[in-house]
Amino acid sequence: MNILIIGSGGREHAFAWKIKQSQKCDQLFVAPGNAGTEAIAQNIPLNISDFKAIGKFVVDENIGLVVVGPEAPLVDGIVDFFQASEKLKNTPIIGPGKLGATLEGSKDFSKEFMIKHGVPTAKSKTVTSENLEDGLAHLETLSVPYVLKADGLAAGKGVLILNSLEEAKSELKSMLDGKFGEASSKVVIEEFLKGIELSVFVLTDGVNYKILPEAKDYKRIGEGDTGPNTGGMGAVSPVHFAHPDFLMKVEEKVVKPTINGLKKDNIPYKGFIFIGLMNMGGEPYVIEYNVRMGDPETQAVFPRINSDLVDLLMATWEGNLNNINLEIDPDYATTVVMVAGGYPNSYQKGHEISGLGSADDCIVFHAGTKSENGKILSNGGRVLAVTGRGNNIQEALDKAYHQIEKINWKDINYRKDIGQDLIRF
Asked: Least C-beta-crowded within 10 Å: which of 24, 75, 92, 334?
């Protein structure tokens, strides 16, 4: 069949890399894609927000499966658009409708969902400019550090963790005044959860589900988890502090109530649920839901899935995911993200990248890249994600960092401590 992947980042390159391995895939398209996807698929210059143009392409090219990578088209209702069209309603598309996507599109909605369905999570209070004084008073009842979350989508940068009450009050006012645009017109003030963070990924057809390999990501720009948050600087899978008994608790206390809650609330859901968790003394607490795969976690998770991804995705659409076997590779995959100097603040694009050939057990996933006149140029903040594979974390990291040493462009930056906390654990 012909398959279309929507998106242009490292996650979408990982989808393309994995889907390309399937015997079910005839022609593979990525819209708009990057220089990495261009090497294994056909990039299509479509705007991911232009649902009409995407729909026309799907009809014209007889697309048999659409995979939506990023969250924005899902939150904006691309699945609803397909379902409302006579020509598109029978086209398999992986991702929730607009209501299901609100689990990520609104922190307030997701909090209410968790509380309603008994999913363990931090205590919180939602604040708008109308009840700012209540919010300021609520901050005074909490202890350091203070957690403020923009209600809406803020490109992974809408969460602030603050170490002084005065700073928290100031930032709350700033957020409500538009620091993150419309996304922070509502702010969720949340109790700080102390523990070890990890991500669990679930693929569901709305009734049945498969739990994919878990991962730990590294959000801050600086080594030792210092500096501002980014979209993600690296990831490791598996996570050895996620023992089988803990993952069983995750399934019973988080995954099952989440899937059952969607059914009870009549929210159709065919796609991925990315659950950000905190392991607090062996008990799972949900930090947030996302309605797609993570980036850069996908680049560490997909290399560990031996099963045919197209089979899994089609079973998701058809509602028989329970009939598909999910085979996981026990080896480790570690991903290190290479970024433009200055990221996550201002940075330059257009620098030529050299040394991109991959070695065995190492994959270079492209994120912010483009090809121009036979050259590969940097074209974003997060430029590449290099994934190494090995029998243990150290071996996988050694392979990733050895590959990174061969790659170069002007003002290159990456963290040199990805996974070190897990080696010491």
From this structure: 24
Give residue 318's Cα distance to chain centre: 24
- Angle at which helix 132-139 crosses helix 165-176, to 10 degrees, equals 160
Q: Which residues pair with 285 in a beta bridge?
A: 278
Give the span between the Cα atoms of 394 and 413, in whole angstroms. Answer: 21
At residue 54, what is the residue type? Answer: I
pLDDT, one tens digit per residue, over 303-324 is: 999 999 999 999 999 999 999 9
C-alpha–C-alpha distance, residues 205 and 310, integer Å = 14
The structure tokens listed for 146 are 């203070």
Alpha-carbon span 218 to 225, nearest angstrom: 7
Between CA 128 and CA 298 the distance in angstroms is 34
pLDDT exceeds cutoff 90 at 39: yes
Residues ≥6 apart with Cβ < 8 Å to 185: 128, 129, 151, 152, 176, 178
Helix (H) or strand (E) holding 10: helix 10-19
Position 229 scores a pLDDT of 84
Q: Give a three-class secondary structure readout of 285-296.
A: EEEEEECCCCCC
